[in-house]
Write a structure and sequence with these properties.
Blueprint lengths: L1 E9 L6 H9 L6 E8 L5 H6 L6 E6 L3 H11 L2 E8 L3 E2 L3 H11 L5 E10 L4 E2 L6 H7 L12 E3 H6 L12 H12 L2 E13 L4 H4 L1 H21 L6 H19 L5 H17 L6
Parallel strand pairs: 1-2, 1-4, 2-3, 6-9
Antiparallel strand pairs: 4-8, 5-9, 6-7, 6-8
Helix pairs in contact: 7-9, 9-11
Length: 282
């Protein structure tokens, strides 16, 4: 079996594509395939990809359908591990080596990420205080605990648990993907820079920030329900949470005495404390 499949989804990426591809081909770990799933590009992206003669590159053209193309790339992956990369970012030279070695030495971990360093409009180190599974899983209530452009997954785990990008979550599809992984397996962050993250004014998360709010709220509520389901239904704390706390907060939100952000932080704190007191076991 091939050790690693790098899956790169592209769409009209001609401005950055050479840099992105070169960052993969120049990895210190060279036993991989690079699957480039083209989401119906209409620019010179295909021409740029086909200009490379490296046998590790596999190019597949798909109709314009973000989720469909995302799934296609993951299904084609022949590697033991899948490394995710966005078409405007670059891999740190030792990224694949670092993540492959980490996963090989931590068989209990099903997916991992790590730090990034931004470049372009902004330049800064992008860290995260959340390194282990329990902290990362609970953090999903408030936001992504992992930088998606650093994602590295066990292919067998995704296949066995039927975890693929899902429709119905719009621009929060990555958020949902990681939430599903956290519920089915174990995740971790590596405190090293793995990806160089390009920043510019027309990035998806900037242009579509408002469209991300509702599907993100959907993911967050699903995670809250998941943690509540871990409580003993016969316990006093389960009755307090489900019969008193949640209905009261919902009413306060309706009356605009409680913000959505305040609610999410409250539930984050509550679930952290329930976990720390062994009411919830992850």
């Amino acid at each position: 079996m091939l050790p690693v499949s790098v899956v790169l989804q592209i769409y009209n990426a001609e401005a950055f594509l050479h840099e992105t591809i070169e960052s993969v081909l120049n990895q210190t770990f060279d036993n991989f395939e690079l699957i480039i799933a083209d989401n119906g590009s209409t620019d010179r992206s295909k021409e740029i990809v086909l200009s490379y003669e490296d046998p590790r590159i596999r190019y597949v053209f798909c109709k314009h359908d973000f989720i469909g193309t995302y799934r296609k790339g993951y299904k084609l992956a022949a590697g033991k591990y899948i490394a995710h990369l966005d078409h405007d970012d670059k891999m740190a030279p030792e990224r694949l080596h670092i993540q492959f070695d980490f996963m090989e030495s931590h068989p209990e971990i099903d997916a991992c990420g790590g730090y990034m360093h931004s470049f372009g409009k902004y330049s800064r180190l992008m860290t995260t205080p959340f390194l282990n599974h329990d902290d990362m899983a609970i953090q999903i209530i408030e936001g992504m605990p992992v930088h998606n452009p650093t994602g590295f997954f066990r292919k067998e785990f995704l296949t066995r648990n039927k975890i693929m990008p899902k429709r119905g979550y719009s621009f929060a599809a990555d958020y949902k993907f990681w939430a599903d992984i956290a519920k089915a397996g174990r995740i971790a962050n590596i405190p090293q820079v793995l990806t160089y993250y390009r920043t510019y004014d027309t990035q998806t998360h900037i242009v579509h920030r408002k469209e991300m709010l509702l599907p993100s709220w959907k993911v967050q509520n699903e995670m809250i329900a998941y943690f509540i389901s871990k409580l003993n239904p016969d316990s006093d704390i389960f009755k307090i949470v489900t019969k008193k706390i949640l209905p009261s907060i919902e009413k306060l939100i309706e009356m605009e005495y409680f913000s959505v952000k305040g609610y999410l932080h409250f539930m984050y704190e509550l679930i952290c404390n329930l976990k720390n007191n062994n009411e919830i076991k992850l």
